[in-house]
């Protein structure tokens, strides 16, 4: 088991190198001179532009720029943004906010999605099942920003139950609405996955055996059916964590959350390679760790899976 | 990356470049509606008022702050020689007087007794040292070009501003390279603020926790929480005319205007200085009269690069006039911008002293299908037109709707091919613009730094000027600008600048479209909100009951 984890952790190194190289080259390939656009319609004095280019090695060929960036990383220097802030500070500020938001969304979609999906799966074809399926389809069909704006206007502006925006006030209460918006689509998928999986397993042989042995229905459902049914759901949730971390741009914009999404979006528009690459790399790491956790959870869920 | 999501948001994201993305907004004279009475003497106690903002792009150093996000904050923290009141008129702040015989050498006398919030006195050196620092090439300050007219300034090497001379603690002289009648007008701008001695030890660190002499000061160490906001409190030692009537200002940063607007509706934000596109049609009703919509010092146009043969020469001149006559500015500002833009009637802005809507030649801006067709036919007789009319714009700035409307006008009236030419980002458009490889006209916008006519003219149309992106050159025009600069008074200068505009109407290097308006609003219970000539709400006089 430990051996397995060690091997998986070592895989991070090539992935890290590949990801940074790929992302760096993509930012590098973006057309337009980011420095020229810094001054708006008026532009900055040529001397100022040149100093910025020198400071960020923007005139160097691609490989030199990339290696200089890597050299910085090794000495834990992640570079500086165009506005003079340490990239590490920017990342350190944005990441925890988005992480809290993503975890809240994940908990919301997991608990609610699995519960509703389980009930729907157990009563396949009933009223509850049909309602759950139609509702989840609707949630998937409506774009996130529509759900976000409508909820913000109804709950925040009109009713005043929850804060309209987050801004600097990062609390459970202010993040509740954005987390629900962010997790809404995944909630629908988790619900449908769980329902299908549970419905399938209910007619499996081992369930009939367990019932014949005289186990109570509760025990059959929770220990046997649910455990087996959760394997595809856990896989989805693991991948979704990364998705939630990176894909919160719309939700963060609507609720004015100073997180990864908005920061990344701004950095891409401004062509700030250091910020884009550093943030994306962190996101790649999160993906890797989440996937490792999912694989380890398999062993807990399915006794047949063993990591040696 | 959610590409779709990003593009949807791009429309509502505010990029705070100096009018670079047409998301700036402007302001003029009326706002609060009633007379404002600033509290008498001393720092006022009262409620803290909040206003929307964006994360400044640079540390809060006057010489390096060239965008509205930082400018809004810096203007609260510092007091310059002069300040601009709501109407854009120049009022003395630290300056006792400014005198000149020839519009080239100015003697500036300061009031006694001003201090920075660290206790150090505001002297002639506070100004001269700050200006020298900003102008020095190797300091790479964004506002360095504001000093290019002063003797000793250089774009090629580090050189001291020899034109600045300290006479005594409260007097210094400025000698310009050539006469500039409106030089005093610009001295209220951010770039000309003084700095305390401590700033020069480490400018970047100073910019994180700046020490100024303005109506407000930072609310302690770390009052600037990056990407979140800045809190400022009244400066008890402030002695100028912008005395705070409230207990402080909270500038809260918003990624998108929609979020800020919703906060305003739910009472979580007191003042907003721009309205999101999505609320253009509804904000006046939703805010029940607590809103403002008036022209601002922002001019929008499109430029014909001089190097395009089909738009040059005698035929080109006729064609440009035809295009201008083919555009229905009234209709576009009404339907696409829902009245949040004002059709242009000159090359400057109505909020500027000396502005006129009846300059000879300005009738070229009138929508007239028949005349447009006639002019086009005349041009065809000289030399047939091949190709099409394209309008280049950057899609990240929300320009598509009006660019399509303008090209539709041209296509329908003149019967030629016309279409928008989108560039994904502003940076991409700049690549072609600055390399001189545009294939057709492109959008341009300009926001004034100081309320003077010439600020809209010389930087854009003078031969070889920094923002003369169409490479326009007309010796007659240049001569009039020089004459205006050498004039005895601002009034006399304005007359000459208006004559220079007549030449622009004749040549049409740029075709004026409209002035951006300032669209602002305030929450219930908030009073005395007035928007300044430069689109920024005068936060020092805002009160909350």
From TrEMBL, chain A:
Manganese listed as a keyword: no
Transmembrane domains' residue ranges: 12-30, 99-120, 132-155, 175-193, 276-301
ABC transmembrane type-1 domain ranges (all copies): 95-298
Superkingdom classification of source: Bacteria
Gene Ontology biological-process annotations: transmembrane transport
Membrane topology: Multi-pass membrane protein
GO cellular component, one term: plasma membrane
Leader sequence residues: none
Entry keyword set: Cell membrane, Membrane, Transmembrane, Transmembrane helix, Transport
Localization of this protein: Cell membrane
Record InterPro entries: BPD_transp_1_N, MetI-like, MetI-like_sf
Similarity remark: Belongs to the binding-protein-dependent transport system permease family.
UniProt-recorded name of the protein: Oligopeptide transport system permease protein
């Amino acid at each position: 088991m430990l051996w397995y984890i060690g091997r998986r952790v070592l895989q991070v190194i090539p992935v890290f190198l590949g990801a940074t190289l790929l992302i760096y080259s993509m930012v590098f390939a973006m057309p337009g001179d980011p420095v020229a656009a810094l001054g708006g319609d008026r532009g900055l004095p040529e001397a100022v532009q040149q100093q910025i280019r020198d400071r960020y090695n923007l005139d160097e060929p691609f490989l030199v720029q990339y290696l200089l960036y890597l050299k910085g990383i090794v000495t834990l220097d992640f570079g500086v943004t165009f506005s003079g802030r340490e990239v590490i500070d920017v990342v350190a500020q944005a990441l925890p906010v988005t992480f809290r938001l993503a975890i809240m969304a994940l908990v919301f979609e997991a608990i609610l999605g699995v519960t509703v999906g389980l009930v729907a799966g157990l009563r396949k074809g009933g009223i509850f099942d049909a309602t759950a399926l139609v509702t989840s389809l609707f949630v998937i069909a409506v774009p996130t920003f529509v759900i976000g704006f409508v909820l913000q206007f109804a709950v925040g502006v009109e009713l005043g139950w929850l804060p309209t925006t987050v801004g600097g006030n990062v609390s459970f209460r202010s993040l509740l609405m954005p987390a629900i918006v962010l997790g809404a689509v995944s909630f629908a998928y988790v619900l449908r996955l769980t329902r299908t999986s549970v419905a399938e397993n209910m007619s499996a042989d081992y369930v009939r055996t367990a019932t014949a042995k005289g186990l109570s229905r509760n025990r059959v459902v929770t220990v046997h059916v649910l455990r087996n049914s959760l394997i595809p759901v856990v896989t989805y949730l693991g991948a979704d964590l990364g998705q939630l971390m990176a894909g919160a741009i719309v939700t963060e914009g609507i609720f004015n959350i100073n997180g990864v999404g908005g920061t990344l979006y701004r950095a891409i528009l401004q062509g700030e390679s250091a910020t884009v690459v550093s943030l994306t790399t962190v996101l790649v790491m999160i993906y890797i760790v989440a996937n490792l956790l999912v694989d380890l959870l398999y062993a807990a869920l399915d006794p047949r899976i063993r990591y040696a | 990356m959610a590409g779709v999501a990003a593009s949807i948001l791009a429309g509502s994201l505010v990029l705070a470049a100096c009018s670079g993305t047409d998301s700036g907004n402007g302001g003029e004279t009326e706002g609060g509606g009633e007379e404002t009475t600033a509290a008498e003497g001393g720092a006022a106690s009262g409620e803290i008022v909040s206003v929307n903002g964006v994360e400044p792009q640079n540390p809060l150093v006057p010489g390096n702050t060239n965008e509205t996000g930082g400018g809004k904050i810096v203007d609260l923290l510092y007091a310059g020689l002069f300040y601009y009141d709501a109407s854009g008129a120049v009022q003395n702040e630290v300056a006792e007087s400014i005198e000149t015989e020839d519009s080239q050498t100015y003697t500036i006398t300061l009031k006694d007794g001003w201090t920075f919030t660290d206790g150090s006195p505001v002297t002639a050196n506070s100004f001269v040292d700050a200006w020298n620092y900003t102008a020095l090439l190797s300091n790479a300050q964004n506002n360095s070009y504001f000093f290019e007219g002063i003797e000793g300034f250089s774009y090629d090497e580090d050189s001291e501003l020899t034109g600045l001379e300290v006479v005594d603690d409260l007097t210094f002289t400025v000698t310009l390279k050539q006469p500039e009648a409106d030089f005093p007008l610009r001295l209220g701008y951010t770039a000309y603020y003084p700095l305390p001695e401590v700033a020069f030890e480490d400018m970047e660190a100073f910019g994180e926790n700046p020490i100024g002499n303005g109506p407000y000061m930072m609310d302690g160490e770390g009052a600037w929480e990056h990407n979140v906001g800045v809190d400022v409190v009244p400066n008890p030692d402030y002695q100028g005319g912008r005395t705070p009537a409230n207990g402080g200002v909270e500038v809260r940063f918003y990624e998108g205007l929609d979020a800020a607007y919703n906060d305003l509706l739910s009472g979580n934000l007191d003042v907003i200085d721009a309205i999101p596109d999505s609320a253009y049609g509804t904000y006046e009703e939703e805010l029940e009269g607590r809103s403002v919509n008036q022209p601002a010092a922002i001019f929008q146009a499109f430029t014909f690069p001089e190097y395009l043969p089909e738009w040059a020469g005698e035929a080109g001149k006729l064609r440009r006039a035809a295009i201008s006559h083919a555009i229905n500015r009234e209709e576009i500002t009404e339907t696409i911008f829902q009245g949040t833009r004002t059709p242009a009637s000159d090359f400057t802005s109505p909020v500027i002293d000396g502005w006129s809507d009846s300059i000879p030649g300005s009738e070229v801006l009138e929508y007239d299908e028949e005349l447009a067709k006639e002019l086009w036919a005349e041009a065809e007789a000289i030399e047939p037109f091949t190709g099409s009319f394209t309008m280049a714009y950057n899609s990240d700035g929300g320009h598509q709707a009006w660019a399509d409307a303008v090209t539709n006008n041209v296509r329908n009236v003149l019967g030629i091919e016309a279409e928008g030419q989108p560039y994904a980002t502003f940076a991409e458009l700049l690549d072609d613009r600055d390399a001189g490889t545009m294939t057709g006209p492109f959008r341009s916008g300009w926001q004034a730094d100081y309320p003077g006519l010439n600020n809209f003219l010389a930087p854009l149309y003078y031969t070889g000027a920094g923002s003369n992106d169409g490479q326009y050159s007309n010796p007659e025009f240049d001569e009039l600008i020089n004459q205006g600069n050498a004039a005895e008074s601002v009034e006399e200068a304005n007359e000459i600048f208006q004559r220079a505009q007549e030449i622009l109407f004749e040549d049409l290097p740029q075709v004026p479209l409209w002035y951006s308006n300032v669209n602002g609003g305030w929450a219930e219970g908030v009073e005395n909100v007035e928007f300044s000539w430069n689109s920024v709400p005068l936060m020092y006089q805002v009160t909350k009951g």
